[in-house]
Structure formats: structure tokens, C-alpha cells
Design brief:
The protein is mostly beta strands. The protein has one helix at about 10-15; strands spanning about 50-65, 80-95, 95-110, 115, 130, 135, 140-150, 155-165, 185-200, 205-215, 220-225, 230-235, 240-245, 250, 255-270, 270-275, 280, 290-300, 305-315, 320-330. The protein has one domain: Lipocalin (Beta Barrel), CATH 2.40.128.
């Protein structure tokens, strides 16, 4: 049986809470998002502009995967709706484009959240456990970024960023699912963009690659939540990593309409609970997820862009198997 259902969404919620993503507009989070850069994020926007994003991501999971072995019963139902606002200000910094940004996400549950009980004999029928959950504003994210390489002639760019998520937001240590981990999170992020075929003003195919390293503090106000009363505990999480690869194809240059298939892989992030008596327990959660992405984006006008992102988990370890749909609207002013 899964040791601690409260943490089943820790990895996914952290990614959403800390970033819905980084950097430019044609560019334009997971998601939260830590960051979750989407295609075009490694292309620099103009200097001295403001960019405002609105995100709405719906995620649904019907299976919870343990760290190793088969998934839990299909009677699991975990559905969430995350909305977020993100603001970017760009400027010149030492002859390079730089900028700062902030993200404020809000998350809520859709319907009842239920964990399927695995391996019950057929005569018992489906087993379910109702999961209590918190909702509200979750950990905000703050970032600074810079483009050390920017070669418009060859459409070659490199961007680096640092993110920090302070331990503030709606947090309920007694809930089965708490979307705020209540611990400091830092992330180092690098993204690269290169044109492969065609030219920037016509139909073209590019490649965009991202790598992130995440580092965590600890939460001394956590608790083990199970069948009995919550047990006070300290939550610690090991560093984790993420890689993303996109192949954006601009098929309608007049509106910069682009289709971008993508691949996402995360790893690490083992969580451990430490009790006052010195005992330690594996929380059963990891940041190990293999995901396919299919993204469409277009400009509606010179100042408005819309993006639709579909995400499909192939494999997870120590987390939910997610199916996500994300809408993002961006404006420049």
C-alpha cells in the first residue's frame, strides 16, 4: 500500500507551483513550474518590454504508480485545475538581454479526490480511499535570466536562469494532498534554440533543448498522514533534474503558427520523513516522469499569443500518471 497518500502529487505540484515556466514570449509554464519551459522560451524577446501570461492547466490521473512495480487500482481519481499569472520585464544587461519575472499560481481540486486500493480480491469489489486536500494560492516563483548567446542571423540562442520558490502559500500538513510543500526550492536552468531547416521568416523547423537542476530545503512542519493521527515529521527532498526537447515547426509564417512535438523526462527527487525519535521513512514519492507533449501556438495579433498544450505521461515512478491540457494566453505591452 502506498505509504503516504498526502504526497502523491508532490512532484507535479512543485513543478506547477514553482514555475509554469521561464523566459520569452515567442517563447513563452508546469508550467510550474522549478520551471516548465515551453517551445520558444529560448528565443529572446525585445528589450524593455512587459509580458503578461495567463495559464489554465487541467490535469487528471487515474493511476498512481509506486516507486517500483505495478500501478494502483484504476479507481484512483485525482483531478486538479491550476491557474496562474506570470509577469516578465526585460532589459539590457552588460550588452546582453536579461530580465526578471514572477509567477503566482492558484490550484483547486475538481470533484472528489480518490485513491484506489490495489490488489483486493475480486469478491470485495473496487476499493477506494477519499483524500482530503487543501486548495488556494501555492508557492510563488521568482526568477532572473540572461541570454549569453544571441545570434539572430543563424537563429542560435542560449539562455540561463535561476529560480527561487519561498515556502509561502496555502499549506495544510494534515491534508492527504497538500499542493504547497512549504520548503525553499532553487533551480538552475539552461535552454538552447537552433534553426535546423528553412528561414525565420518562412516555414522552418528548429530544435530547442532544456536542462534543469533543482535543489530543496526541508520542511520542519510536515507530518506523516495515514489512518491514525498525523505524526509530526521533517520532510526532506533530494535534488532532482529535468530535460526537455522540442521540435517546433512553423507552418504558417503570417501568424507565426507553430506545431511543437516534445519530450520531457525528470529524475531524482526522493522524499524522506524524519521523526523526532530519529526514525526515517521513505515517502514513496519521486520526480521520475516520462512524458510526450503536443503543442500548438499562434499570434492572434502583434500583441497577443495563444498556446494549447497537451501532455501524456508514458511512465511515472512514485507519482500519478497524468493526462494534462494547458491553455496559455500571452500579451506584450
Amino acid at each position: 500500500m502506498y505509504k503516504n497518500p498526502r504526497k502523491i502529487l508532490a512532484a507535479a505540484a512543485l513543478a506547477l507551483a514553482c514555475g509554469l515556466s521561464s523566459l520569452s514570449l515567442d517563447a513563452a509554464p508546469a508550467n510550474a513550474l522549478t520551471s516548465d519551459p515551453l517551445p520558444g522560451e529560448a528565443v529572446p524577446p525585445p528589450a524593455n518590454i512587459n509580458i503578461l501570461f495567463y495559464y489554465n492547466l487541467f490535469t487528471n490521473a487515474g493511476v498512481l504508480e509506486p516507486v517500483r512495480g505495478d500501478g494502483y487500482a484504476r479507481d484512483t481519481h485525482i483531478s486538479l485545475d491550476l491557474q496562474g499569472l506570470r509577469y516578465i520585464r526585460t532589459f539590457n544587461a552588460g550588452g546582453m538581454l536579461g530580465g526578471v519575472q514572477a509567477i503566482l499560481p492558484y490550484i483547486g481540486a475538481v470533484g472528489h479526490q480518490v485513491l484506489g486500493v490495489p490488489h483486493l480480491p475480486p469478491t470485495y469489489g473496487p476499493g477506494r480511499i477519499n483524500l482530503s486536500h487543501s486548495a488556494g494560492f501555492i508557492q510563488p516563483a521568482f526568477s532572473a535570466f540572461i541570454f549569453p548567446i544571441s545570434r539572430p542571423a543563424s537563429d542560435t540562442y542560449l539562455v540561463t536562469a535561476f529560480w527561487v520558490c519561498p515556502p509561502i502559500g496555502s499549506y495544510d500538513k494534515n491534508a492527504n494532498i497538500s499542493f504547497t510543500q512549504n520548503l525553499w526550492t532553487g533551480e538552475i536552468e539552461v535552454g538552447a534554440h537552433q534553426l535546423l531547416l528553412g528561414n525565420k521568416t518562412g516555414r522552418n523547423l528548429a530544435v530547442e533543448a532544456w536542462g534543469e537542476g533543482l535543489f530543496y530545503g526541508s520542511n520542519g512542519d510536515s507530518a506523516l498522514v495515514g489512518a491514525g493521527a498525523p505524526i509530526p515529521a521533517r520532510l526532506s527532498e533530494q535534488p532532482s533534474g529535468q530535460v526537455r526537447l522540442y521540435l517546433p515547426y512553423q507552418f504558417f509564417p503570417a501568424s507565426l503558427a507553430t506545431f511543437s512535438p516534445g519530450f520531457y523526462q525528470s529524475f531524482g527527487g526522493k522524499e524522506t520523513y524524519s521523526l523526532a525519535n530519529g526514525a526515517k521513512y521513505d515517502a514513496g514519492t519521486r520526480t521520475e516522469e516520462t512524458q510526450l507533449r503536443f503543442i500548438l501556438s499562434t499570434y492572434l495579433s502583434p500583441h497577443w499569443q495563444i498556446m494549447l498544450n497537451g501532455e501524456y505521461d508514458l511512465v511515472t515512478h512514485g507519482g500519478p500518471l497524468n493526462r494534462n491540457v494547458e491553455l496559455r494566453v500571452a500579451t506584450i505591452f
